[in-house]
Design brief:
Order of helices and strands: HHHHH
Helix content: over 70%
Number of helices: 5
Shape: globular
Radius of gyration: 17 Å
Distance between the termini: 18 Å
Structural class: mainly alpha
Largest sheet: none
Oligomer: single chain
Length: 168
């Protein structure tokens, strides 16, 4: 478990208990998101929005390498970038009529936005690179047409999260 970089003043025990509870809740929500995407090809908002609120709590109230403004900028950057890529890809698909379903769903876009809150722009870019490489390797070995992006993005986000604490 990753503990805050500097000590809290006053009620240390309550601070650390609340921190640990939020970490475990975030891990639980990320696991539920991964399972839902693998099984049903959908990322439910009931797991995404609490994960977003926990990320905002971390960037606001706890000593964290990402500030609240960096998190919000990362969320907006992730949302806009992913939406544009999805729109361009969808236009390409309609032009060539190769797939029936959109490649990037709104759940993936919202998940990347939540990742921007947790990681900021730099951490989000690292997470996206890791997740795209891992997803491409998985698809190659499984000969899959559909890649559940959430498990790979959560894995890349976790590695990026760890890297933010030790590299910054």
């Amino acid at each position: 478990i990753i503990f805050p970089i500097r000590k809290a003043r006053g009620k240390n025990m309550i601070f650390y208990i609340f921190y640990i509870i939020l970490i475990f809740l975030a891990i639980f929500l990320a696991t539920k998101i991964s399972i839902a995407d693998m099984r049903h090809r959908i990322i439910p908002d009931i797991y995404l929005f609490p994960l977003m609120l926990i990320g905002l709590c971390f960037t606001t109230f706890f000593p964290y390498p990402i500030t609240t403004s960096d998190g919000v900028i990362g969320a907006v950057f992730g949302y806009i970038t992913t939406t544009l890529i999805g729109f361009i890809f969808q236009q390409f698909v309609h032009k060539h009529k190769t797939y029936a379903h959109p490649a990037i769903g709104m759940g993936d876009i919202k998940l990347i936005s939540v990742g921007g809150i947790w990681l900021g722009i730099y951490g989000l870019s690292i997470a996206l690179i890791i997740s795209c490489v891992c997803g491409a390797i998985w698809a190659h070995f499984n000969h899959a047409r559909y890649i559940p992006f959430a498990p790979f993005f959560i894995f890349g986000g976790f590695l990026s999260f760890i890297g933010l604490f030790f590299l910054l």
